[in-house]
C-alpha cells in the first residue's frame, strides 16, 4: 500500500501564503499524476492543481496565477505553494497520487486532508 502524508495547512490572513506538502511512500514504481483537490463545507470536492509525469500542469481557474504545484521526484513529494490567499480558498485540501506499483498495476490514493483557513 501507498501512504500519503500531508502537511502545511493552517490559519492565515487574506493575502498571506501557505505551502502544502504531500509525501508518498510505499510500493511505487512510477507516478503518473500528482494533484491537490479541495472541499469546502457544503460543496463538492474540486481539483485545484495537478502535475503529470511529463510536467504538464492544470489549475482551477480560481487559483491561476496564485497557486503553483511542483514536485520533488527523488522524494515522491508534491507541493502546493499558495499565495495571495482569499477567504474563499478556505477548505480541506487533499493530496491525490495516481501511480503504478511494483507489478505495474494502476492505483489512485488520497491523503487524509489538511485544513486551510483564510481569515478576512
Q: So what's the overall shape? A: elongated
Report the C-alpha radius of gyration, rounded: 14 Å
The total beta strand count reads: 11
Would you tell me the overall average pLDDT? 95
Question: What percentage of amino acids are in beta strands?
Answer: over 45%
Distance between the termini: 40 Å
Helix content range of the residues, please?
under 10%
Which blocks of ≥5 consecutive residues have pLDDT under 50? none
Structure classification: mainly beta
| Number of separate helices | 0
What series of H and E elements makes up the topology? EEEEEEEEEEE
Task: Summarize the main sheet.
Answer: 7 strands, mixed
Could you explain how this protein is built, in words?
The protein has strands at 2-7, 10-13, 18-26, 30-39, 46-52, 57-59, 67-72, 77-82, 91-100, 106-110, 114-119. By secondary structure, the chain is mostly beta strands. Strands 2, 4, 5, 6, 9, 10 and 11 form a 7-stranded mixed beta sheet that branches. The chain has a 4-stranded antiparallel beta sheet with strand order 1-3-8-7, with no helix packed on it. The protein is elongated and about 50 Å long. The model has no long low-confidence stretch (mean pLDDT 95).
Give keywords:
single chain, mainly beta, elongated, 120 residues, 60% strand, 0% helix, 7-stranded mixed sheet, 4-stranded antiparallel sheet
Write the layout of secondary structure elements.
Layout: E1 2-7, E2 10-13, E3 18-26, E4 30-39, E5 46-52, E6 57-59, E7 67-72, E8 77-82, E9 91-100, E10 106-110, E11 114-119
Parallel strand pairs: 2-11
Antiparallel strand pairs: 1-3, 3-8, 4-5, 4-9, 5-6, 7-8, 9-10, 9-11
Amino acid at each position: 500500500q501507498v501512504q500519503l502524508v500531508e502537511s502545511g495547512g493552517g490559519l492565515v490572513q487574506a493575502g498571506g501564503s501557505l505551502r502544502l506538502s504531500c509525501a508518498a511512500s510505499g510500493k511505487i514504481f512510477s507516478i503518473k499524476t500528482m494533484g491537490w483537490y479541495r472541499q469546502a463545507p457544503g460543496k463538492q470536492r474540486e481539483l485545484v492543481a495537478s502535475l503529470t509525469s511529463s510536467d504538464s500542469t492544470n489549475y482551477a481557474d480560481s487559483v491561476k496565477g496564485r497557486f503553483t504545484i511542483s514536485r520533488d521526484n527523488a522524494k515522491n513529494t508534491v507541493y502546493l505553494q499558495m499565495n495571495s490567499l482569499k477567504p474563499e480558498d478556505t477548505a480541506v485540501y487533499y493530496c491525490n497520487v495516481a501511480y503504478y506499483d511494483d507489478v505495474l498495476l494502476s492505483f489512485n490514493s488520497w491523503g487524509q486532508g489538511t485544513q486551510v483557513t483564510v481569515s478576512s
